[in-house]
């Protein structure tokens, strides 16, 4: 490995967006290097292959380059290390350029001017010109990717884990452009990666970043829900609808917004109806996920029979199951409340799944199940490690039930299928999501592992 690859091998596992935590890195290889700003300071977009346990995954690194000793103190936290770069005998400080507004400004300019050079293309969508010259800051918080906010106008989400193909976030947001339920897209950055379709030797356009309106008046759905839960904890004997800060009105409006987005997606993008064989394949995928999760988290095995029975019931559903493009990783952190109503963000789907699988149509009830799981998380996460856990647990359950009912009512009233009338389908999707969460928490937030495990215990009781 080159000096840079050695440094990346030490730095990548410490990044929040690295999906392969817990498994040693065997190899790091810079597969492609696209200079965006040459000279000093310099910006290169790297496609990096990370090898672990015999398989490789790709990540995007925004590499900032300054002469050794020239890195300003405020960028010290973004340091990757000091090394020689191929073809150059000087010593360079390399760092995460997402934190350097002097460099990131060129990404916004690139989109505004529709630049294209050295294997990357900057694309702009039709519409008002892009206001350039704004400094960016990195959005803080739990993120699978890295988002840069430019002034008060734009968010540029740089995708970290890369899979060949157009990212569904771009594809779906573009299909919904103009809808009041999504942040307007303005452009994107892409490169070409070798297709991962077996036997296909071609290269496919692959999204590196997506530029959208920044919704500055927005409040995160997760924060709003958590505030409501806290209010209920103050008066745990009251029914959630009578406590201050009741969330049911918002949950119902969120259900309506979700149904409206699903309707729009089914108008704009392909739909299908699943045959019994296809249902069987979906159920097989759920069983497979359960097996992988059980191998990693043996505690799950005691619930496996009940989960498998739910997947069998799903596979045996007699009525045809309509499928379409959906959000794919729907939860309260993916929706924000603006002055005008709920807006849905992050149509990327599950970042750990190949893009070509994420693009397959699925049942909109999968999104409904995702949001219902999120109500469960919001109700319980503040009890982790709390001395009042036992006293407050009934209130938490009541909050989740109350808001679940409101969300489903809003969803059905706005023209979505009535979730309550499709219990076998909804239950299987909820279980499948909870199993995914068990793996997600074990890898990323072990202290939260109890949340999905407890709900699987509760749901399968
Ligand atoms: N257009 C936007 N306007 C305002 N806030 C946003 C916008 N896009 C994202 N955010 C905030 O950033 C968080 C993470 O964004 P998201 O697209 O979900 O990234 P990731 O895919 O990395 O999880 C969201 O939960 C939201 O709070
Ligand atoms: O980074 P993404 O938003 O694409 O999604 C991943 O991270 C989420 C956590 O940040 C994770 O969501 C899980 O935790 C949420 C609370 O933090 C909760 O509301 C969700 O219901 C729960 O699934 C998501 O699963 C993961 O893909």
UniProtKB/TrEMBL annotation:
Substrates-to-products reaction catalysed: D-maltose + ATP = alpha-maltose 1-phosphate + ADP + H(+)
Keywords tagged on the record: ATP-binding, Carbohydrate metabolism, Glycogen biosynthesis, Glycogen metabolism, Kinase, Nucleotide-binding, Transferase
GO biological process: glycogen biosynthetic process
The EC number(s) this enzyme carries: 2.7.1.175
GO function terms (MF aspect): ATP binding; kinase activity
Top-level taxon of the source organism: Bacteria
Enzyme class: transferase
Coiled coil (UniProt feature): none
Designated name of the protein: Maltokinase
Source organism (scientific name): Nocardiopsis gilva YIM 90087
